[in-house]
Amino acid sequence: xxxxxxYAGSRQAAPVLLDGLEKLEYRGYDSAGVCVxxxxxxxxxxxxGRLSVLSDRLEGGNNLPGHVGIGHTRWATHGAPSDVNSxxxxxxxxxxxxxxxxxxxxxxxxxxxxxxxGCTFYSETDTEVVANLVGYYYAKLGDFVESVRExxxxxxxxxxxGIMCVDQPGKIVAVKKDSPLIFGFGEGxxxxxxxxxxxxxxxxxxAYLEDGDMxxxxxxxxxxxxxxxxxxxxxxxxxxxxxxxxxxxxxxxFMIKExxxxxxxxxxxxxxxxxxxxxxxxxxxxxAEYLKGLKRIYLVACGSAYYVSVLAKYIIEKHCRIPAEAMxxxxxxxCDPVVDDKTLVIVVSQSGETxxxxxxxxxxxxxxxxxxxxxxxxxxxxxxAADQVIYTxxxxxxxxxxxxxxxxxxxxxxxxxxxxxxxxxxxxxxxxNAAVKALEQLPTDVERTLCPERVERCQYYSxxxxxxxxxxxxxxxxxxxxxxxxxxKLKEIxxxxxxxxxxxxxxxxxxxxxEEGMLVVAVAGVDALFDKTMANIKEVKARGADVLCVTVExxxxxxxxVADNIITVPRVHPMLQPSLSILPLQLFSYYMALARGCDVDxxxxxxxxxTVE
Length: 613
Ligand code: AGP
Prior knowledge:
The chain has 19 helices and 27 strands. By secondary structure, the chain is of the alpha/beta class.
């Protein structure tokens, strides 16, 4: 969602801000703006639409002089996308400028109070309330930092803020509560940003702000204060990945780059966790006694991470014999879940910032559960809040449609399920060893699945089906989770209406929608259920569906007797088969999106990290 960049140094600020905002485009936005301190005071320029509109207006930042500034990409919540609703927002006095990520929940009350005190508002945003509130206290106290503190004390909700004051030319005040914000340490310059890629070109040394923190900085230094106003130190962390990891590196889109990065991401995620044929998940302590006492495992997440959770339910129950349930995080909080100290709650999140998943995690902890997070972004809120963390080492994922994060989350689920099964004694040594060996081999299997012939085949089928209006995905058991993910991919980037159903469920209603020429994607990767899935394909074929079947290489002759078109993947260990089945679906969606003229990396209405409820 919204992206924030702040800069104080000796460079021209506007180009630095635009450059940083470009690196945050992946978060999703519908307007953008910057504010720089210069001879005119606080000069703000804002524009609805793509960043290029703002950049053109600013001639790449060259026509806006000044060395200190804040920038923002906005994903509309309060008020439609428009120039006036874009950030930065100035107080009605023109003395304070604010960029904000998050939601001010008590904005209506604050707005009324400020109106009564004579404040004027020009936009519909909650952020303008912050600007006017700081402006109000600044008029009263005459102290910039104190007025920010007074204002923040009265804010409810989530916020990462970057604030400037006309009378403090070199200074920026940053505040964080429940929305991501990092501080970047430079030489004679300093930065704030919503995420590392925005400032990685300038510095690799960052501090992750804690909730409640305030950072007061200029070009020469920073003072961090905690929520009590005490001066504190914040640990300097070195970013180990290169800027190239967050660039397209010759690929047309981040999504296709990230699809091809999956072998590496899987290697980085799996290899360090297998030592001498044994899975070792550092930092994970789940004793036999604890696991045996568990009544249930909840897997809680949103979107694709939820689909990983659906797969995890099957995998954990099969191998560990503990009841497991996947739940959407947005539902978990409000369903009065049966959770206590005999429940393990596993949350899954690429960004580690998803508001619903965070809230579910907090809820689970309050109810007494042990929590374990599977997260990609180091230092993210979910990683910090969970009792135990397993990182997916996928590297930065920029495309809105997840691919490598999904695959590495699934890999972590395999590792965790096998480790728990071994601890519990619910898996034989022989089966455990076979699974570990297959896991070590998985990155290479993914690599050979992503071969040019298969990629071309997926591209070809996209040309066959790109004019379709609807699609159904059907599969059984773990394949049903893959269908959900494949269907979501098609929806989010190719804007194709698509639904996923367990194959056996179709005849209980949705089959009425099948008509002549409708695309049905069938995933048949579970041997024991292959014949049943073929029977379901026959049912939809009998009603006119055009079936594209994803199956295992040696099953092709059988599938070819039933389906119209086939894409095969190599045969691997049965538990790992979904990791290969998803690959053609990712490629198919990518090429479908291209064929339909969609903006693959920046799909409409979507944000990479959903930091509001
Ligand atoms: C995936 O392609 C989507 N963009 C989306 O469903 C995503 O998986 C979901 O919003 C969860 O995000 P998280 O993993 O960062 O928590």
